[in-house]
Amino acid sequence: MTRIVFITPDSQRIEIDALDGLSVMECARRANVPGIVAECGGACSCATCHVHVDPSWCSAVGEAAGMERDMLEFAEDVRESSRLSCQVKVAPDLDGLTLHLPAGQG
Ligand code: FES
Questions:
Q1: How many Å separate Cα 42 from the centre of its chain?
Q2: pLDDT tens, 48-106?
Q3: Which of 27, 30, 40 to mutate to test the pocket of ligand 1 (most atoms within 8 A of CB)?
Q4: What is the CATH number of the domain that holds 8?
Q5: What CA–CA distances, in Å, run from 25 to 1, 4, 16, 38?
Q6: Does 37 sit in the ligand 1 pocket, CB within 6 Å?
Q7: pLDDT digit string (tens) for 2-59?
Q8: Does residue 62 lie within any of the structural domains?
Q9: For residue 71, is it within any domain?
Q10: Assessment of whether the complete model's pTM goes beyond 0.85
């Protein structure tokens, strides 16, 4: 289990135990984290699983690339720290990962 922290637009903190090997999106959906809609089910074709990675975690998570970067063009409030959570795999080295939920999603 890896701990992932979501911060809502109104600064509420939601902490979940995520299963290693699943995507962050899958774990967020299982835990009913608000704002992670995931319309396409993880196929990288909807951008409704958009998150902003906390600055302290950006290097560990890495940047979006390829298809994910293209799909992010359809999301709102895209930043350098933006990722699609369906494309981030949970792993022990991400324990404590902090993600901010964009306003207006979901
Ligand atoms: Fe659709 Fe991530 S769930 S792009």
A1: 11
A2: 999 999 999 999 999 999 999 999 999 999 999 999 999 999 999 999 999 999 998 86
A3: 40
A4: 3.10.20.30
A5: 15, 11, 12, 7
A6: no
A7: 999 999 999 999 999 999 999 999 999 999 999 999 999 999 999 999 999 999 999 9
A8: yes
A9: yes
A10: yes
Interval between CA 70 and ligand 1 midpoint (Å): 12
Q: Is residue 105 part of a domain?
A: no
* Structural domain boundaries enclosing 39: 2-100
In a domain, 54, yes or no: yes
| Tokens found for residue 14 | 């939601």
Q: Which amino acid is at 77?
A: D
Q: Report helix, strand and coil shares of the chain as percent, to nearest 5.
A: 25, 25, 50
